[in-house]
Amino acid sequence: MNNIEKSPDQRPLSPHLQIYRPTISMIMSVMHRLTGLGLYFGVSFLIFWFIALILGPESYQKFNAILSMQIVQIIFFVVTWAFFHHLFGGIRHFIWDLGLGFSLKSVDFLSYMTLVLSLLFTILIFLLT
Question: Are 76 and 94 in contact (CB under 8 A)?
Fold first, then answer.
């Protein structure tokens, strides 16, 4: 009987990203976390807007001039998309909290709908404003 324990070098490694093939659900889960983080920075737009309103018309005009810059509009578009993506991702998680949508087809469908609806709502907001 040989009960010698294997050294740590001989033990199998736990599967990680190099083994698993990314799925839409995995990607949307990561994006939900990243958009939540990004929204912390996106809230600065609201804070600066409120400060500009408090400081008066001159400050508000300067803030509007900054908002009209192309790079700021791109950032604003991304922050708006992050908001809607995080919103629909939260609804997806709420559906799961209710105990629904756990079949593989439902999980993939909800993940795709999160992506599609977030893009659709972001584009609609920018077309209607």
Answer: no
Quickly tell me which residue has 């009209």 as its tokens: 68
DSSP 8-state symbol, 14: P
Question: 26: which 2 tokens?
Answer: 């995995």
Calculate the average pLDDT of the chain.
90
Task: Write the pLDDT tens digit of every residue in 33-48.
Answer: 999 999 999 898 889 9
Domains and CATH numbers, the chain: 26-128 (1.20.1300.10)
- 38, 82 Cβ separation under 8 angstroms: yes
3-state secondary structure the chain: CCCCCCCHHHCCCCCCCCCCCCCHHHHHHHHHHHHHHHHHHHHHHHHHHHHHHHHCHHHHHHHHHHHCCHHHHHHHHHHHHHHHHHHHHHHHHHHHHCCCCCCHHHHHHHHHHHHHHHHHHHHHHHHHC
If we measure between CA atoms, which residue out of 81, 74, 69, 71 comes closest to residue 39? 81
| Dihedral over alpha carbons 18, 20, 26, 27 (to 10 degrees) | 40
